[in-house]
Specification:
single chain; about 350 residues; alpha/beta; QueA-like; Thrombin, subunit H; 2 domains; 9-stranded mixed β-sheet; 6-stranded antiparallel β-barrel; 17 strands; about 20% helix; about 25% strand; globular
């Protein structure tokens, strides 16, 4: 299958640059995955499409302010460091710009020396392992010095850091938000629970792979970056019980989907535990546990468009995207949503 099979023309002005004031006021395109039929609603109307006995699965990862601006020690060269993956207490895998200035042994300083780092290795795709030095608690220093790592297609400054977090964000570790969850308010989640819909929490720390373009022509040759996930025993039981009782498992976002599909055996039973996943879902994939998906509108030729095409069919997805473009839906992280059922 060719990467160009998942291309579409998106007018740049449809890329949402700012979040809406009211999270649940975004628009919702409802897509029937079997027939391709569509409805236009608002996100809070999701209540009409959920029913008692369903289970909504949310990813409770929390984005860390992972973007650090500093300078190379001994020079005035500006250096940008994006934290990707914690390797040990003080060592992180990072993306460094400009990388060529930061060879092994080079040092970088942030916030007048409040935080210092030294490149100790160069790993896959030129990423740097940096060992950090600081006094105090790393997370507190990061909160003071770091910026939210917004995707490259968002050029506006984010006024409120919390708008790039879900209202249920809990476990720190992501370099990007699980953006389908940004549409939920605490009140809406309470209404959903009051309807008799279970809410199950899983954790997948979103890595930079979420922004990485597919650089191969044949999608089967693409390699996904690994991301760490956790499924607790209590949450696995909620999800397995839902399936056993004939309810639907509805994932909020592609990250929840990938967590469940990674941790579910061929017998359709979700197993509790933690680990690293490199699962790549594209058309031809047979879903083991997911029934429905709440998701945003994704980049052309991205692994995320391929995932939703695996669920609803490439033709239905591309038709829905054309409809969304015609109706001036807002795209990407701060954009509108789609419910595939």
């Amino acid at each position: 299958m060719n990467v160009t099979d998942f291309n579409f023309e998106l007018p740049p002005e449809l890329i949402a640059q700012d979040p809406l004031e009211d999270r649940s006021a975004s628009r919702l395109l409802v897509l029937d995955k079997k027939t391709g039929e569509m409805e236009h609603r608002h996100f809070r109307d999701i209540l009409h499409y959920l029913k008692k006995g369903d289970c909504l699965v949310i990813n409770d990862t929390k984005v860390i302010p992972a973007r650090l601006m500093g300078h190379k020690v001994g020079t005035d060269a500006g250096i940008e460091v994006l934290l990707l993956k914690r390797k040990s207490d003080n060592v992180w895998e990072t993306l460094v710009k400009p990388g060529k200035k930061m060879k092994v042994g080079a040092e970088v300083s942030f916030g007048d020396g409040l935080l210092k780092g030294k490149v100790i290795d160069v790993v896959d795709e030129g990423n740097r392992l940096i060992q950090f030095e600081y006094d105090g608690i790393f997370e507190e220093i990061l909160d003071k010095l770091g910026q939210m790592p917004l995707p490259p297609y968002i050029t506006h400054q984010l006024k409120d850091k919390n708008r790039y977090q879900t209202v249920y964000a809990k476990h720190e570790g992501s370099a990007a938000a699980p953006t389908a969850g940004l549409h939920f308010t605490k009140e809406l989640l309470q209404e959903i629970e009051d309807m008799g819909v279970k809410i199950a929490h899983v954790t997948l720390h979103v890595g930079l792979g979420t922004f990485r373009p597919v650089k191969v022509d044949t999608i089967e040759n693409h390699h996904m970056h690994s991301e760490f996930y956790i499924v607790e025993e209590s949450e696995a039981k909620k999800i397995n019980d839902t399936k056993a009782d004939g309810g639907r498992v509805i994932c909020v976002g592609t990250t929840s989907c990938r967590t469940l599909e990674s941790a579910t055996g061929d017998d359709g039973i979700l197993k509790a535990g933690s680990g690293w996943t490199e699962i790549f879902i594209y058309p031809g994939y047979k879903f083991k546990i997911l029934d429905c998906l709440i998701t945003n509108f994704h980049l052309p030729e991205s692994t995320l468009v391929m995932l939703v095409s695996a669920l609803a069919g490439r033709e239905h997805i591309l038709n829905a995207y054309q409809e969304a473009i015609k109706e001036r839906y807002r795209f990407f992280s701060f954009g509108d949503a789609m419910f595939i059922h």
